[in-house]
Design a protein that fits this description.
alpha+beta; 3-stranded antiparallel β-sheet
């Protein structure tokens, strides 16, 4: 056969020998034939790749499954499709392919009657944080942190109105009073005056139970299905913003740092005012995201609130470079621009910017997110740049799905012009005094 990959019929015809055989099937997928004394394990498929996919990455073997045409067995075609999918997703997401493989691996030892709500939430969480349920999209880092807290500290917390993780999921079927149980959880949270939190947790349960229904763990209908009561509109509390004439005092207050806050907090707040990026993107900013030659900050799409098919870029102005250069002696030897040795994540906590603004005297007057509304309003009332230029630079989604599908304009030159103008204005107002 030479080096030509095997086909399905040829694999069937192969027989075990005294030694273990490893035969290439193309695309780094291999057929493993166990030796005669282990022949009961037969033939199986495994893929081999480096992870991380660099020269320093270790070569690992990922078992796909047993060869065959039966239940829970893999034909050559299916094995190759699965392997290419795992390898591609691993390179794209930076996730160990073994984790991706196990995320959707059925637990054949567990009968449906033995599945608990804790197990169901574990699997739902695992899938959405590895390869995703829809269009191979996974949750963003901020969503993962938020949902982990809601699931394991609230929904699966019987001491706070939630459920014991070992409760059989069958008990949540509509016929078994599941709807009532979920409403009792929701009302427990609602009594604290946290209706928004109650509705969000209820909606999360809906997503998990849809996942469970699709897998035959419980019968329809979904016990957390939407109703008028659970989807009632809530009054939206917008983040406070400052007027144009109030920015002089803000810039001076940040620069003077009269409360002696940590340097990385002050610098991160300055960058927030110059870029109006979300605090969840600024806090974990990495040095590798900055390109001196191209003069751009490239934010990985996985860090953005709305995950996109491509990374988001921010023009870097001379004022921003000033912030980075002042940080370099402090954190240049670490991964993060705003390195924080006190944090488990080793970077600044996103909440630090809001805490800094409060201590400066801007409680109920401005938040880190409010800087975004501040610049948009300032542009409308004073600067006069085209609105869509500012909104694109804020990473807003513009237009409907059809328009976004066909209009791929970035307006880069106009965005650079606006960012330089805004940075110059903030410097004039005393941000670097």
């Amino acid at each position: 056969m030479g080096n030509k990959p095997l086909n399905h019929l040829q694999i069937k015809a192969l027989q075990p020998t005294a030694k273990k055989q490893k035969i290439a099937c193309g695309d780094s997928l291999f057929l493993i034939i166990e030796p005669i004394h282990k022949s009961k394990n037969g033939k199986s498929f495994s893929g081999i790749m480096r992870f991380p996919p660099t020269k320093v990455g270790k070569q690992i073997e990922i078992r796909i499954g047993k060869f065959g045409d039966g239940v829970n067995e893999w034909t050559l075609k299916r094995a190759k499709e699965e392997w290419l999918k795992l390898r591609g997703l691993s390179k794209e997401k930076g996730i160990d392919p073994r984790v991706l493989r196990d995320a959707n691996k059925p637990d054949y030892k567990m009968k449906t009657s033995g599945i608990t709500i804790g197990y169901a939430f574990d699997k739902w969480f695992e899938v959405n944080t590895t390869y995703g349920l829809t269009k191979e999209k996974i949750w963003s880092k901020t969503t993962i942190a938020d949902y982990r807290n809601r699931i394991y500290r609230q929904i699966l917390n019987p001491d706070d109105g939630g459920f014991a993780p070992d409760t059989p999921i069958k008990e949540f079927e509509w016929a078994n009073g599941g709807r009532t149980k979920l409403f009792e959880m929701r009302e427990h949270i609602q009594k604290r005056g946290a209706l928004r939190q109650a509705n969000r947790n209820f909606k999360m349960c809906k997503g998990m139970f849809e996942y469970a229904i699709d897998r035959g763990w419980i019968m329809e209908p979904n016990p957390a299905k939407t109703s008028k009561e659970t989807s009632q509109p809530l009054s939206v509390k917008h983040n406070p913003i400052l007027k144009w004439e109030e920015l002089d005092a803000l810039c001076k207050d940040i620069s003077e740092n009269s409360i002696s806050s940590q340097p990385e907090v002050v610098q991160a707040t300055k960058l927030g005012l110059l870029t109006f990026m979300r605090v969840g993107v600024i806090a974990p900013l990495e040095w590798k995201e900055l390109d001196k030659k191209k003069n751009i900050w490239t934010i990985p799409y996985s860090k953005m609130k709305y995950q996109r098919e491509e990374d988001f870029t921010v023009p870097i102005t001379k004022q921003m470079w000033r912030i980075f250069e002042e940080q370099r002696p402090i954190s240049g030897e670490t991964d993060y621009v705003f390195f924080s040795p006190r944090s488990k994540s080793k970077h600044l906590n996103a909440s630090s910017i809001n805490a800094f603004l409060k201590r400066l005297g801007y409680k109920d007057r401005l938040t880190g997110h409010g800087m975004r509304g501040t610049v948009l309003t300032a542009n409308e009332e004073h600067l006069g740049f085209e609105k869509h230029i500012v909104r694109i630079q804020m990473s807003h989604k513009l237009g409907d799905k059809v328009e976004r599908a066909y209009n791929h304009a970035t307006y880069w030159k106009k965005r650079v012009e606006f960012m330089e103008y805004w940075s110059n204005e903030m410097e004039k107002k005393g941000l670097f005094a």
